[in-house]
Amino acid sequence: MPIDVAWIEERITVTKTMILAYEAAILALSNGVAQYSLDTGQSRQSVTKHQLGSLRLQLTDLENRLQTLQNQLAGAGTVYVRPGF
């Protein structure tokens, strides 16, 4: 399947929606909410303050994905580095 501009733009929109959902969950849990319903538009799950670390890691992954997609849209190449090399 060829990757075209429309496909990349759609992925960017989905990724931005997920980033906003993760940011809202992290903010709510950081401000004292005991449990939060994380709805990414793709799935819904209940998260707690104990999951803040993994939520922050996922947010970082989503931000990296967004940057990669934006680079692809701009015509920039992507360099993948394998851990340990």
Write down how many β-strands occur, each being a DSSP E stretch of 2 or more residues.
2
Shape: elongated
**Strand arrangement, major sheet:** 1-2
What's the total helix number? Answer: 2
Q: How far from one another are the termini?
A: 30 Å
Q: Domains counted in the coordinates: how many?
A: 1
Unreliable sequence segments: none
Strand content: 5-15%
Q: Estimate the helix proportion, in percent.
A: 55-70%
Structural class: mainly alpha
Q: In this structure, how is the largest beta sheet organized?
A: 2 strands, antiparallel
Arithmetic mean of pLDDT? 89
Order of helices and strands: HEEH
Write a structural description.
This protein is mainly α. It has one domain (5-73). The chain is 56% helix and 12% strand. It contains 2 helices and 2 strands; from the N terminus they run αββα. It has helices at residues 5-30, 52-73; strands at residues 35-39, 44-48. It has a two-stranded antiparallel sheet with strand order 1-2. A hairpin with a 4-residue loop joins strand 1 and strand 2 (44-48). It starts with a helix and ends in a 12-residue tail after the last helix.
